[in-house]
UniProtKB/TrEMBL annotation:
Orotate binds at residues 115, 143. Catalyzes the transfer of a ribosyl phosphate group from 5-phosphoribose 1-diphosphate to orotate, leading to the formation of orotidine monophosphate (OMP). This is Orotate phosphoribosyltransferase. Its EC number is 2.4.2.10. It holds the Pfam family Pribosyltran. Signal peptide: none annotated. GO terms for molecular function: magnesium ion binding; orotate phosphoribosyltransferase activity. GO terms for biological process: 'de novo' UMP biosynthetic process; pyrimidine nucleobase biosynthetic process. It catalyses: orotidine 5'-phosphate + diphosphate = orotate + 5-phospho-alpha-D-ribose 1-diphosphate. SUPFAM superfamilies: PRTase-like. Pathway: Pyrimidine metabolism; UMP biosynthesis via de novo pathway; UMP from orotate: step 1/2. The gene is pyrE. Residues 53-146 form the Phosphoribosyltransferase domain. Keywords: Glycosyltransferase, Magnesium, Pyrimidine biosynthesis, Transferase.
Length: 192
């Protein structure tokens, strides 16, 4: 299935600007998985394997990349689930966390990709303000750009299906040596 990530455009190489504002020679678009049920099923099974080792009461997706995964995982595991917005709504009841109640609960936060940790840290803060505690963050891919360290400093464990270097190694036979070396060199600049 790793090669399918390339085939359907989940993993791309070129010049990209990330949501964090960082420039990158590769881009990971896990939203593209949603259009491929076989790949989606595989990605969900990878999340399930990781979640099976953790203790928690509630599953929360980070808007927007984590929402579809947290929803399916909550349904399959029969756990309360919801999602965390970047900020509270300006209308209705003004919630930042939708779905499951988090007060007094241990939450696991699910996102697709972890880069700097900004959106995940926002979710951890929101859960804390609502009276809950994030015990773990689970992502499909840790880009290894200091996000995991930032999340750990905030008091939550970080679990990833893949780290970027592992994914690059698995893709190496399919991407060519130039793209592989460019990506590894880019990652080597991050000292966390």
């Amino acid at each position: 299935m790793i090669q399918r990530l390339l085939e359907v455009g989940v993993v791309k190489f070129g010049d990209f600007v990330l949501s964090s504002g960082l420039k990158s020679p590769f881009y990971i678009d896990l939203r593209a998985v949603l259009g491929h049920p076989d790949l989606f099923q595989w990605v969900v099974s990878q999340y399930l394997s990781t979640l099976s080792k953790l203790e928690y009461d509630v599953i929360l997706g980070v808007a927007t990349g984590g929402i579809p995964y947290a929803s399916v995982l909550g349904y399959l595991l029969q756990r309360p689930f919801g999602y965390v917005r970047p900020e509270a709504k300006g209308h209705g009841v003004g919630r930042q966390i939708e779905g499951a109640e988090v007060a007094g609960k241990r939450a696991v936060v699910v996102d697709d990709v972890l880069t700097t940790g900004k959106s995940v840290l926002g979710a951890i803060s929101a859960v804390g303000e609502a009276g809950g505690r994030v015990t773990a963050v689970v992502v499909f891919l840790d880009r290894e750009q200091c996000g995991a360290e930032a999340v750990r400093r905030a008091g939550a464990g970080v679990y990833s299906v893949y780290k970027m270097r592992e994914l690059l190694e698995a893709l190496r036979p399919h991407i060519g040596e130039g793209q592989y070396r460019s990506a590894v060199e880019y990652l080597s600049q991050w000292r966390c």
